[in-house]
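Case study 2.
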Amino acid sequence: MAKPVYIFIAHPGPSPWKIVLLLEELEVDYKLLPLDTKQKPIHDLNPNWKTSILVDGRTDVLLCETGAITQYIVAQHNPERNLTFDDEDLENKYLLTQWLNLQMSAQRPNFGQSEVKTVLGLLDDHLSRAGQWLVGNKMTYADLAFLPWDRVTGEEVDLLKEYPRVHAWHGRMVSRPAFRKVCEMREKWIEEQKVKKQKVEEQKVEEQKVGQEDLLGGEDYKEVVGEIEGERERGEI
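Prediction:
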């Protein structure tokens, strides 16, 4: 039985979920695992501690950074060349890389609304010439790469409606079953991680309480206190 692709996720931000969305669209067997960036061996395997990690159970390939992972999945788990183009279609193949690189550089944590509008305007202008999709006449991994961030930065503040072509493009993708499934998975994953984090914090508090009780009630402590009290009674201190 073939081993799955393992995806380690460090945080609930949009970037890791474009990988999950890609795997769902391609119907690749995969498993999601929480990534503790402070623990070994992940600490040693991932040069950038905060990013996602792929471990391919079939090939033993290990990668971090969502762009590299995206291109690996498309190359190794997409024999029918869905969501991409054949090698012979050289221009479109590298245009996909261009748009993926643009997405990774333009959509990032902590970028302001003016930057969001710049990206949406750029996309809207391009789609006015390209048609329904960024490259060629079909949805590709380049289109999907923008989707998680557009949903967070554009949809939630109702910005997408200001860009009609982007709004329509976005709508074509969010209506797909794979995207709806990934949204549900992300919400569930976030809640599970909150519960786990809360349990860890509660355990730390209990351990601190036990440590304090041991300190205050330990024999060494009682002995020292007894000696001090005796010295006080004798007027030595």
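The first strand starts at residue 5 and ends at 9.
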